[in-house]
Automatic annotation (TrEMBL), chain A:
The lineage of its organism: Bacteria, Bacillati, Bacillota, Bacilli, Bacillales. This is ABC-2 family transporter. It comes from Paenibacillus cellulosilyticus. Keywords: Membrane, Transmembrane, Transmembrane helix. The chain crosses the membrane at residues 14-34, 77-99, 120-143, 186-206, 212-236, 248-267.
Automatic annotation (TrEMBL), chain B:
Residues 2-224 form the ABC transporter domain. It comes from the Bacteria. The lineage of its organism: Bacteria, Bacillati, Bacillota, Bacilli, Bacillales. GO terms for molecular function: ATP binding; ATP hydrolysis activity. This is ABC-2 type transport system ATP-binding protein. It comes from Paenibacillus cellulosilyticus.
Length: 278, 229
């Protein structure tokens, strides 16, 4: 019960940043679709004038079709919106611990004295930013058809080649990772990301428990965790490459992720319960 | 009864507590005194599990401390421990949501007594008002023990008198109180036990009534003797 209360509390604190990020993401993506469509039309008109073409069909026959997907294969506003959200979430994973621990009003003192296991606090602080991240990803997915509709409303069908939305995700390298259509890839990317956050939390809790010495231990801990997780990749690059099949290496990678996450969660909760110093 | 037995604590190489042992009975006010850096706040934090100890034992009514005991023990820090952007009314809602022993009736009574505005935000409060709110949040919990860290720190004369008056009211009756303070004169007549600390060691501990009756000395007199040496 305390977990849900704390999660609700953390999410309420995140509501304003989430709202701002949602507005920025929406504005950038809508602008992306609008500017790409206008750029295409302007270009077509310029060429038509230059080559004395009278209709859009003639342009399409001579020079091919425009597609919303073309705005996805290059660095643009879409990437910027993803970068802004990722940067905020990344920053928040650290900020969520320090915001309450330092300053004039150390709210962490109150949180540590709640009459319930401190594990609740750990899980709430882990899941709240992750839920915000999922919300932003859902928004990205929602904005794809919106952008597509804007593009369609500006670019006439005579010069427009409609591409399935799924294709848009495949074309863009960032979306291909964030909204990967392959379930294994999705688990791989998100598993790695969540493990990275869990290891980061262990590092932060080490610092909060042992200060300067904790930073040193945290860095060593993170280095060891990264090495362990990278073992399958090292195997992939080595002479032992053919001792394991790709699927076996993938399973091995998942096992290592689970092991590193499990150990880190246990150690973090131990630090929070027994060593955390205010 | 809160018992500390041979409690040792280090911050890096610095020994902050060097074998501290004392007991603070329920229904009595125990005062921890000492110069800055004597280890008073660290003792309170160690009792509350806000900082780990290297060795020694801390027992609350004979048992080891656990998270459930936060409904029986209240720590009133010298800083407000609620987010700065929270209103006083929201602080009350928060406490009510998490603590079964939060006494809303008493909280509202104290709100009127200290003339606090529930619409005020935590970060807009003056030092004196913040100290009153801190004390209010401690007193509004039906807890057996209250640990107060410098409740008079930076507080004006009138607020100090208001806060001191609370210690002789029925609101603290039956509770075990451990108090750290430099402003000993405000509460000297209320103290039952005094523990004097110097560089993490106990230099003297006594029952204030015994000291008065047997040696004819006040707490301030003993403090002068101990710390002016």
């Amino acid at each position: 019960m305390t977990y849900w209360k704390l999660l609700n509390f953390e999410l309420r604190r995140l509501a304003l940043p989430l709202g701002i990020l949602a507005v920025i993401t929406t504005a950038l993506q809508v602008y992306n679709a609008y500017s790409q469509a206008n750029k295409s039309i302007d270009y077509a008109h310029r060429i038509m004038k230059k080559e004395h073409l009278s209709t859009m069909e003639q342009y399409a026959n001579e020079h091919g079709y425009f597609s919303y997907s073309k705005s996805f294969d290059e660095l643009n506003w879409l990437i910027l919106s993803i970068f802004i959200c990722a940067a905020f979430i990344g920053f928040y994973f650290v900020f969520i611990w320090y915001r309450d621990s330092v300053g004039r009003h150390p709210f962490m003192t109150r949180l540590l004295m709640l009459p319930a296991s401190r594990r609740n606090l750990y899980w709430a602080k882990l899941t709240a930013p992750l839920l915000v991240m999922i919300a932003l990803l859902a928004l990205q997915q929602l904005l794809l058809p919106v952008g597509d509709s804007i593009y369609r409303s500006i670019v006439p069908s005579e010069v427009r080649e409609d591409v399935p939305l799924q294709m848009l995700i495949l074309i863009n390298p960032a979306l291909n990772i964030l909204l990967s259509p392959s379930i294994v890839d999705l688990l791989l990317y998100y598993g790695t990301g969540i493990t990275a956050v869990i290891v980061l939390y262990t590092g932060i809790l080490l610092e909060r428990s042992y200060r300067w010495y904790g930073i040193l231990v945290g860095l060593v801990y993170a280095a060891v965790a990264i090495f362990v997780v990278m073992i399958p990749l090292i195997i992939l690059q080595s002479d032992y490459r053919y001792t394991m099949m790709d699927s076996q290496l993938t399973v091995f990678y998942f096992i290592l992720l689970a092991a590193v996450s499990g150990i880190s969660v246990w150690y973090s909760q131990y630090l929070l319960a027994k060593k955390f110093t205010i | 009864m809160i018992e500390l037995i041979d409690v040792k604590k280090r911050f890096g190489l610095k020994k902050v507590l060097q074998g501290v042992s004392f007991t603070a009975p329920r229904g009595a006010i125990t005062c921890l005194t000492g110069l800055n850096g004597a280890g008073k706040t660290t003792i309170l934090k160690a009792i509350m599990g806000l900082t780990p100890i290297q060795s020694g034992t801390i027992r609350i009514d004979g048992s080891a401390r656990n998270q459930a005991m936060y409904e029986r023990m209240v720590y009133v820090s010298d800083q407000l421990t609620m987010p700065g952007r929270m209103k006083i009314a929201d602080c009350f809602s928060f406490m009510k949501e998490y603590y079964r022993n939060w006494n809303s009736e008493r909280a509202n009574e104290l709100l009127a007594r200290f003339q606090l505005n529930p619409a005020d935000k935590v970060n807009s409060l003056s030092k004196g008002t913040a100290a009153k709110l801190n004390l209010l949040m401690g007193l509004a919990m039906d807890a057996d023990y209250m640990l107060l860290d410098e409740p008079f720190s930076g507080v004006d004369l009138f607020s100090r008198e208001e806060i001191a008056a609370v210690f002789s009211s029925e609101m603290v009756e039956g509770r075990g109180i451990i108090l750290t303070t430099h402003e000993i004169r405000e509460v000297e007549h209320l103290l039952d036990y005094v523990v004097m600390l110097d560089h993490g060691r106990i230099t003297k501990q006594f029952a204030s009534d015994d000291m008065r009756m047997e040696e004819g000395k006040s707490v301030v007199d003993v403090m002068r003797e101990v710390y002016k040496r």
